[in-house]
Amino acid sequence: MFYSSHQILTYKRIYNIIVGERGVGKTYNFTKLGIAEGIKTKQKSFVWVRRYEADIDDIKGDFTKDMEANNEFPNYTFECIKGNIIARNIVTQEKFIIGELIPLSLYQRKKSKPRPFVKYIVFDEFIAEDGTSYLDNEVYKFINLCDTIIRHRKNVRAFLLGNAVSMVNPYFAYFNINDLSKNFTKGKYYVVENCDYQEFREMRRKTAFGKSIDGTKYGDYAIDNKFLLDDTSDVMAKPKGKEEIEFIQTHSTIFTKI
What we know:
10 helices; 19% strand; 29% helix
């Protein structure tokens, strides 16, 4: 019913982009994945990225709360100190760093630090909820950070998690992604998963809040994973004889490529 990364991992791409229903479990899945890897290796195994420092401040105190509430790792407790996620074995009292929280806005200060054991880079909420509050040259900054972490290794994966806010975003522009009609859309170095968890959607529709938004534009977005800010009602069919027509009105700074 809830999101699982099992299938997208089989594609073995560097960049793994997941667009899914609100609450389907994207963040939960990758938090668990990163922590499990960190506990297994007893090394800093994942980096968790958000856009701004305030975003990191909002989550650092509660980053592992869902894991603890659901008893996912019963032999461990967790704390965040100076942006590092630290696991403590409650039997042996052994402590070690398993992950790091990084604001992309401070990538210049963070990128020079070596992270040779990081296996997963997770950028949560990579599509801005307001459709506009991206950093200048943001894709460059994210890929630069990935380069610092990945270097020459082949086993590192970057995951970009987002809700269906808008197809008009700097990441889709950079990778030239304009069609998500399939559940999985593949490129040479990326794969996009457009989630379709029908059982989860039907479950959510039956909740009190789900009933209140079902059939609305917000319900289309929050339940049915339809892009909230994209309105194609005034877009005409392509005239015959025209090979390609493009018209996107947005902030030009968003689309600066490397």
